[in-house]
Amino acid sequence: MPAMTDPAGRGAAAVMLVCDYSLRYLGGAQTAFVRQARSLADQGWTVVVVAPDADVLAGTANVIPVSPHVRWTLPGLDLPILGRRDGLAATLGELIDRHGVAAMVVHSEFALAAAVLAVGARRAVPVLHTVHTFFWRAPVLLSPLAPVVRWFHRRLTGLPSAPRYTGSTPIDNALRGMTLRVALRADVVLSPSAHQAQALRDAGVAQARAFSNVAEPMQLTDPPAAGPLTLLWAARFAPEKRVDVALDAIRIVGERLGPGRVHLHVAGGTRKPQPDVTFHGAVSADRVAALIADSHAVLITSLGFDNQPMIALEAFTRGRPVLVSDPALATEFGAAALGTVTPDAAGLAEVLIAAIADDATLRAAGAGAVAYAQARQSAEHAAALKRAITDAAARASARPKLPSHSSRGFTPIPPTP
């Protein structure tokens, strides 16, 4: 893939990747962000990375890391609170001029995202918004705080309210409204999954399209040749990830087939000891990769929450399929996934028992995993992003260019229909 070129035809250019989250915290969004930066750089693109702790990418060829000052970090959410939007926009403008940035891709919905929208609108620089989750979820007991969430996000970003989302609980609606405020103003919205892209379009984001995260280089190894069916569950210990579904399924299999027929490795936390389960606690990315290689498949037990879990791409690049409880993910991953008939532990246990009796379905899904990952390698990802940037540039050029002075009341122009 050739280096990034200016959509206006002025030769070589840079792309700016922007994220409000600390890159030292390895959540799914950060993992996808860092992987994209390195992948595009490997393809010869100049990548300006603007994010808290961007220095994690220091020394990477073709990557220019810029870390904005963090005033403080929001407790509980680990969200860095940065400076005012207008000051951040001025910094972004300087970087655009210095490095010849042709497009900005933002991976978050807070102050930096608002600054990207402001400078993009003033300069007619295309803005692409990668949405890592539209399926924000919080305990329903927090619903009385929904007005506070809306006020806080408006205060932090300076963006006016978007049309109210009404498809969930009051607190979830307020959280999803944060995504909509940014997505409705971006030139193109990128969703790593087709089902989330559809949800965004249903919410009014007409410019949302499916655009996969980039997969790691292929690292194929043979699955374990003997012993029990070995599985990995790796995620945050959060209610929406539903680790208990995985644990209960292992218990059901043990009760029906006896001990030792299946073994589950759990990375991300610990619980009370359980037969046929090994809890590893929080582990490094390298250790997760080793656990994938030592397993026959990866379990993903979330339901109605995940977009494109990065653990799935990590499994696919190693030729391992995923077993999923969410029918949307089963459809999303196609031949690379085995879905459950019901999303509960009993449904997952049935899939595991069938795989123990005959591993042909797992082998077929493993072949599907390889095909899925091969279609999402660096070169393919860069080519797809270049096409998306060209589309975004056409939209940006159709917008009236706004004055370069900054204004607290400035409202970015909505995307053209």
Architecture overview:
The strands form three sheets. The chain has a seven-stranded parallel sheet with strand order 3-2-1-6-7-8-9, sandwiched between helices. Residues about 405-415 have low confidence and may be disordered. It contains 13 helices and 15 strands. With about 425 residues, the chain is an alpha/beta fold.
Write the layout of secondary structure elements.
Blueprint: E1 14-18, H1 28-42, E2 46-50, E3 63-66, E4 72-74, E5 79-81, H2 85-99, E6 101-106, H3 111-123, E7 127-130, H4 146-157, H5 170-183, E8 188-191, H6 194-202, E9 208-210, E10 229-234, H7 243-257, E11 262-267, E12 277-281, H8 285-293, E13 297-300, H9 310-316, E14 322-324, H10 327-333, E15 337-339, H11 345-357, H12 360-374, H13 378-398
Parallel strand pairs: 1-2, 1-6, 2-3, 6-7, 7-8, 8-9, 10-11, 10-13, 11-12, 13-14, 14-15
Antiparallel strand pairs: 4-5
Helix pairs in contact: 1-13, 2-3, 4-5, 7-11
